[in-house]
Amino acid sequence: MKPHAVTIKDIAKELNISVATVSRALRDTYDVNQETRQLVLNKALEMNYKPNYNAIGLVTNSSHNIGIVLPAVVNYYFSTVISGIQEVAYKNGYNIVLYVTNDSAERERDILHDISPGNIDGLLLCVSSESDQDEHFTKIINMGIPIVFFDRVASNIDTSKVMQDDFNGAYAAVDHLIKNGYKKIAHITGPPGLLFTERRMEGYLLALKEHNFPVKKEWIIHSGFTQNCGTADMMQLLKCKEKPDAVFAVNDRKAIGAMLTLKKKNIKIGKQIGIVGFTNDPMSEIISPTLTTVEEPAKEIGRRSCELLMKHIFKKYFIAEEVILPTKLIVRESTQRL
Fold this sequence. Notes:
DNA-binding transcription factor activity; DNA-binding; 434 Repressor (Amino-terminal Domain); 12 strands; HTH_LacI; LacI family transcriptional regulator
């Protein structure tokens, strides 16, 4: 026989208070004093009360689902962000619905076109590298669905955003190369127009400027974010009349692609050409030589993004916040000249 599911009526009966008071206490409304609320919460825990979100949704017009729109799930960064999001979402009684764009702006637009307020209560969104317009984001917000951007953000949309400190992380990476004796530093980066690639570019350029190092257009290559892109970018750099002696890559996957190219060409990594990445993917410790990189706080980005989304969902007039989390330079073998 299926056990009886505890309801708010059962809690009210045990405490000898009204069902309405129990309901308000569980929703933490302003008109229930703290003592009563704590009594209700303690009794709910004691009786193993589980909210019926389907029933609540019918009353509050809430699905208790949040959507995550992101370019991929197969790499370390995004899978780690998701784990941070899950912690906060589940703690607040929310399920997650995952949408993967495969880094396609068209797929991103199609996903957002099909989303409705009845399906989800809010969106966490990392934009496609091909995104060139904000109209589809604005439509979602105008439907009453709050959005919080993370990592790759739409800079023109007035809503909360959570990012790592791309500028200072890039500056630290290039400054480290310079202090290790590298003088001709290239940058293999992502597609133009994305805020985080622009900020990493700015950090790269400032470090060169402060040390009076040249900026050569042929040493700055825009392409995608994959390992194959890193391989192709490194091949292009090796064809330059004046070859660089170091490369700062926009992420670890591109850095590893560049390293594999150098290995095939029997060019010694570190001694002849130094390499720095950005992410601290587990692969950066497995590849030989190990990869110097800038560590991104991926799990914390997931947590903070979801916390902000919960605030936007629970508080109608919550003021948008921009959160920038610190990065950390991890020095390994790929920048050792000896």
